[in-house]
């Protein structure tokens, strides 16, 4: 049997994103050893029992110095502190990547906290989230056929980008590249705004005196639209604040669209409503999620 492509990876955050990364590389027989760090001893022990990690890390400096890849799979708001902790101890061949849903803030944190190790950090965003979190949610096939976006830094060597690309491809992902700015603009529109709207609708209904009655009649339309409101509040708090400017711009556009529909309703403008609905239906019908 050939030697694994990566002798050792260290994962900070062994839940859905980090745990699935580790399981996928283990399934592909592409990694020799997986070491996990996290805030909860119980979660780390569960990850070890589930075969996600081989060992629970005890000393950051010792573990990252000889790692091939370090994955930061924590909420975005925790990454800067982790970067500052690991940077002084990284081996010269060690690459760091992340699973954050925003990239502008991650890049800024890299430049502020990684010192002379900036070139060793290759930012990434796996587009494969789910509502469930924690080690028990990790799946070896989570990334199969899913997109992963790399947002390389000017300092990254072609070889470093290729190694991180290869790691995600071994997980089954389809890897593409954008700039950090392009990434955040795109995902403000197609990911962050939908989550914000879903949370807002459920929160609105939750404040009403007749919410139990309303929810008792909610069916598939409500279920489909609000599915993502079951996502991690902590993670989405950080994402929304990290991508604040782009998200505010998208909210402004969406508010204008709602105002247009409100005016059409007030004036009983059936033609306008049908035009908007028809245009939306056409675009949605032609779109195919991968």
Quick structural summary:
By secondary structure, this protein is of the alpha/beta class. The chain has helices at about 15-25, 40-50, 60-65, 80-85, 105-115, 160-170, 180-205, 210-215, 220-225, 235-240, 245-265, 270-285; strands spanning about 5-10, 30-35, 55, 70, 95-100, 120, 125, 145-150, 175.
Task: Provide a descriptive summary of the structure in words.
It is a single chain. The protein has 290 residues and is α/β, with parallel strands linked by helices. It folds into two domains: 6-178, NAD(P)-binding Rossmann-like Domain (Rossmann fold, 3-Layer(aba) Sandwich); 182-286, 6-phosphogluconate dehydrogenase C-terminal like domain (6-phosphogluconate dehydrogenase C-terminal fold), CATH 1.10.3660. It is built from twelve helices and nine strands. The protein has helices at 16-27, 41-49, 60-64, 79-86, 104-113, 158-170, 180-206, 211-216, 220-226, 233-242, 244-266, 270-286; strands at 6-12, 31-37, 55-56, 69-72, 95-98, 121-122, 124-126, 147-150, 174-177. The strands form two sheets. A six-stranded parallel sheet has the order 3-2-1-4-5-6. Strands 7-8-9 form a three-stranded mixed sheet, with helices on one face. Helix 4 packs parallel to helix 5 (104-113). The longest helix has 27 residues, at 180-206.
């Amino acid at each position: 049997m050939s030697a694994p492509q990566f002798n050792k990876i260290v994962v900070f955050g062994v839940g859905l994103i980090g745990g699935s990364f580790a399981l996928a590389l283990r399934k592909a027989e592409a990694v020799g050893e997986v070491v996990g760090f996290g805030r909860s001893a119980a979660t780390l022990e569960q990850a070890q029992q589930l075969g996600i990690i081989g060992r629970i890390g005890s000393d950051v400096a010792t573990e990252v110095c000889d790692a091939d890849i370090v994955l930061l799979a924590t909420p975005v708001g925790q990454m800067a502190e982790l970067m500052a902790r690991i940077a002084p101890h990284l081996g010269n061949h060690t690459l760091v990547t992340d699973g954050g849903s925003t990239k502008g803030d991650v890049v800024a944190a890299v430049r502020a906290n990684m010192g002379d190790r900036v070139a060793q950090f290759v930012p990434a965003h796996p587009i494969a989230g789910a509502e469930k979190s924690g080690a028990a949610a990790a799946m070896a096939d989570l990334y199969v056929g899913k997109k992963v976006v790399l947002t390389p830094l000017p300092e990254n060597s072609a070889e470093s980008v290729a190694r991180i690309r290869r790691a995600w491809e071994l997980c089954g992902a389809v890897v593409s590249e954008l700039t950090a700015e392009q990434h955040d603009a795109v995902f403000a529109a197609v990911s962050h705004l939908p989550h914000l709207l879903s949370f807002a609708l459920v929160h609105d209904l939750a404040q009403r005196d007749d919410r139990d009655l309303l929810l008792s009649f909610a069916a598939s339309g409500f279920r489909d639209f609000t599915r993502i409101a079951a996502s991690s509040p902590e993670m989405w708090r950080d994402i929304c604040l990290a991508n604040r400017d782009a998200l505010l711009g998208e909210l402004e556009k969406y508010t204008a669209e709602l105002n247009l529909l409100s005016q059409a309703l007030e004036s009983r403008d059936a033609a306008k409503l049908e035009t908007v609905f028809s245009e939306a239906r056409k675009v949605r019908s032609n779109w195919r999620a991968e």
